[in-house]
Amino acid sequence: MTEQKRKLPQVSNIQNLGRLGIFNVQSLDIKFNNGQERKYYRLHAAHDAVTVIAVDQDHLLLIEEYSAGTLNYELGFVRGGIDDNEQLLVAAARELGEEVGYKAQLLTHLTSFYNSTGYQTAQMHVVVATGLTPLAQMLEGDEPEPLTIVRWPLAELDTLIAQGLFRDSRNLVALYAFRDYYNSGKLQPALTNSVEL
Questions:
Q1: In angstroms, rounded to a whole number, what is the distance separating the alpha carbons of residues 149 and 126?
Q2: What are the annotated GO cellular component locations (predicted)?
Q3: Whether residues 95 and 182 fall in one domain
Q4: Position 100 in a domain
Q5: Residues 6+ apart with CB under 8 A from 158
Q6: Surface-to-core class of residue 34, CB atoms within 10 Å of its CB (0-12 exposed, 13-18 middle, 19+ buried)
Q7: Tens digits of per-residue pLDDT, 96-110?
Q8: 59 and 140 share a domain?
Q9: C-alpha Rg value of the chain to the nearest Å
Q10: Is there a domain that residue 3 lies in?
Q11: For the chain, how many structural domains are there in total?
């Protein structure tokens, strides 16, 4: 059966209402094909972000980082924004160096997704980093305090999902995608596609 393409609603009057950190709050008027009209609001980010799943031999390198949303230290993957005119894999390599002090011999773009299609415009890109070696010195990042590195066994991926402080939906989506990739046997620490900073 051929899927018929739906006609998109009409979008007009996109206005910037103000800036909150990395987001511009925008309003937009939408007229649907049945004549209904609504005002929507969204967070417009100038840049996408990257999540890096760092695989160090038979472990994942996770970080503990303070989160203002939960007012607690949360466990997750290396993550950060993509800078102006920065390529995806270069951003992944930079964040890996800033947050855990490693460089990768292979960076593989695994998948991309939206944090919330209802009100955010930026995408999150998931990258797997393998062939890790420590840097002589960590790259300087924008973290307010040093991050705690947690080594998690690859053999215990399913227990990570149930871990009480691994609860950010972006980390969960990345973990599910990585688990499928890992179980498929495609993960290999090849020595190509290195990104130099």
A1: 19
A2: cytosol
A3: yes
A4: yes
A5: 179
A6: exposed
A7: 999 999 999 999 999
A8: yes
A9: 19
A10: no
A11: 2
Q: Are residues 122 and 37 in the same domain?
A: no
Q: Give the pLDDT of residue 195.
A: 55
Q: What is the pTM of this model?
A: 0.85
**Domain ranges, residue 173:** 49-193
* Residue of 20, 133, 150 lying closest to 73 (CA atoms): 150
Same domain, 180 and 102: yes
Q: Is the model's pLDDT at 46 over the cut of 90?
A: no
Q: What is the mean pLDDT of residues 18-47?
A: 87
Angle 46-104-144 (CA atoms, 0-180°, nearest 5)?
50
How far apart are alpha carbons 89 and 98 in whole angstroms? 14
How confident is the model at residue 12, as a pLDDT? 92
95 confidence band (pLDDT: 50, 70, 90): very high
Report whether 100 contacts 61 (CB < 8 A).
Answer: yes
